[in-house]
Amino acid sequence: MQKIHAAITAVNGYVPEYVLTNKELETMVDTNDEWITSRTGIKERRILKGEGLATSDMAVPAVEGLLKKRGISAEEIELIIFCTTTPDMPFPATANILADKIGAKNAWGYDLQAACSGFVFGLATGASFIESGRYTKVLVVGGDKMSSIINYQDRATCIIFGDGCGCALLEPNTEGYGIIDSICKTDGSGRNFLNMKAGGSLRPASHETVDANEHYAYQEGQTVFKFAVTNMAEVAADIMERNQLQSEDVAWLVPHQANKRIIDATANRMGLSSDKVIINIERYGNTTNGTIPLCLWEWEDKFKKGDNIVLAAFGGGFTWGSVYLKWAY
Length: 329
Ligand code: UT7
Description:
It comes from Mucilaginibacter straminoryzae. Keywords: Acyltransferase, Cytoplasm, Fatty acid biosynthesis, Fatty acid metabolism, Lipid biosynthesis, Lipid metabolism, Multifunctional enzyme, Transferase. GO terms for molecular function: 3-oxoacyl-[acyl-carrier-protein] synthase activity; beta-ketoacyl-acyl-carrier-protein synthase III activity. Residues 110-188 form the Beta-ketoacyl-[acyl-carrier-protein] synthase III N-terminal domain. The chain has 329 residues and is α/β, with parallel strands linked by helices. The protein has two domains: 5-175, Peroxisomal Thiolase, Chain A, domain 1 (3-Layer(aba) Sandwich); 180-326, Thiolase/Chalcone synthase (Peroxisomal Thiolase, Chain A, domain 1). It contains eleven helices and 13 strands. The chain has a five-stranded mixed beta sheet with strand order 1-7-6-4-5, with helices on both faces. Strands 8-13-12-11 form a four-stranded mixed beta sheet, with helices on both faces. It has a two-stranded antiparallel sheet with strand order 2-3. The two termini are 22 Å apart. The chain binds oxa(dethia)-CoA. The site of oxa(dethia)-CoA has 20 residues, from helix 2, helix 6, helix 8 and strand 12.
C-alpha cells in the first residue's frame, strides 16, 4: 500500500482591520520608525479592537473561508488543533470554542502551546493523525491576539507583536504530496528569557501580579535573538540534509516572522536567494502562532503542485522546529 502523507489541501487567514503603524507607536513609547524598521523589518501590525473579541473571533472567519474554498462543511472536520499562546480563556480549550462557533459538531480538539513554533508543532502532530489512517480531515489553526498580553509602555515588546490567525486543512494523500518530514525541538531552560510570568499555577493572578505587570509578555530580546538565529537556521539546514535537499531543490522557505534579520540568517544558511523567502513581517509583525499560516495564505496563489516548501520557526520555551512538505495543489 502507498504511504499516506498528510497534505495541506486548503489554507486561509484573517487579520483584523486596525493598523498600528510605527508612527503611532512613536507616540506611545520612546521609539522611532527607523529603529524598528532597521532592527526588525516591521512597519505596521494589525490589532483586534473591540470589546469581547478574542483569538477565536479571528479564527472563525479564517476557518469559514477555508471551508468555503475547499467546499466542505464544518461537520466534516474530525479534529481541530488550535495552536495559540493567547487562548480565549485558560480553559476550556479555544479549539472547543471554535468548534462551537463554526458548528464543527463532529470534531474533537485541543489547544497546542508551543509559543511561536506552535503551528509547526501543530502540523507535525496533525500529520500523525492523518498518517495513521484514522483521520481524513484535520484542521490546524494558528492564531494569537498578542495585543491582549502586550504592555504598550514596554518598547522591548510592543513594537514587535501583532494580531492575526491562519489555518490549514490536512487530508490524506497517497501520491507522494504533503508533509514529508518534520523536526520539533524544545529546551525548557530557555523559559526565563521569553515568558508571561503570572496567571498560571506558579503565580496565580493577584493584585501583586497585576501591579508588577506580570500578565504581559516579557522578553530578553538579545538572548532570544541569539538562540533564534542559531536554532532556526540549524533546524532548517538539518531537515534539508536528512531529505537530501540542495538549495536549488527548495522552492520556498516559509519562516516564522519574528525578525527580518533572523529570517535572512536562516535563508543564508539554506543557500536560498531572497525571491524564495516568504516575508510579510513588514505588514503584520510577529503574530506568534499566526505567522506561518498567514504566509501560506498570502502566497497560496504562487505555489505550484510539487513545490518543495520548508517551514521553520523558533519561539518561547524555547521551542523550534521545521516541516518539509511537497505542495499538493
Ligand atoms: O518570536 C519569538 C522569538 N522572538 C524573537 O525571535 C525575537 C528575538 N529578538 C529580537 O528580534 C531583537 O532582540 C529585538 C528586536 C527584540 C531587539 O533588537 P536588538 O537589536 O537585540 O536590540 P537591543 O535590545 O540590543 O537594543 C539595542 C539598543 C539599546 O540601546 P543602547 O543600549 O545601545 O543605547 C536599546 O535600549 O536599542 C535600544 N532599543 C530601542 N530603541 C528604540 C531597544 N528597543 C528599542 C525600541 N526603540 N523599541
